[in-house]
Each structure stands twice: as C-alpha cells, then as structure tokens.
Amino acid sequence: xxxxxxxxxxxxxxxxxxxxxxxxxxxxxxxxxxxxxxxxxxxxxxxxxxxxxxxxxxxxxxxxxxxxxxxxxxxxxxxxxxxxxxxxxxxxxxxxxxxxxx
Length: 102
What we know:
By secondary structure, this protein is mainly α. The protein has a domain at 38-87. The protein is 62% helix and 0% strand. Helix 2 packs antiparallel against helix 3 (61-79). The longest helix has 38 residues, at 17-54. InterPro entries: RNaseH-like_sf. This is 24866_t:CDS:1.
C-alpha cells in the first residue's frame, strides 16, 4: 500500500512529526531516567533520617552522628571521593538563646 501511494506523483509524502519527535526525545529521556534513579539513591538516606526525626520536638544526638557517618560513607561510595566532615566542631545552626523542650 505504501509503495503504491509513493508511486503516485501528485501526492507528497509528509513524515509523521509525532513519531520523529518520539524517537528523538525518547532516547534522550533514558539518560534523564537514569539520573533520576541515581538522585533517588542519593537522597533516600536523607529522607529516611528526616522521617525518623520528623516527629521529634528535639534532635537526638545519639542518632545524628551515625546518620552523618552513613551519609558520608554513601557519598564516598557514590562519588568515589574523600569528603571531610569535622564532627568535633561544636558550632551549630541553633541560636545561643534558643531554648529546647525536653
């Protein structure tokens, strides 16, 4: 059928733009899909830590250091680079006049 239509000289064949776009964009989306999977893998431990600490009125220090250590190990594995985090530093993001509920 296609060959018969192509032999008719008065008919111009127009390519399907939707199909062409799907072929071009579809292959590009594979890279985006893999990047999103990698991003979820990186952010999942942070989401788990936030979920665990989310119901607390204060942060439990006994959980923070292991969580930071696991984040550091994860990021070193993913990026294969050294990340130095000084856990001995007593500076915090909290104001000095902030009162904590117990």
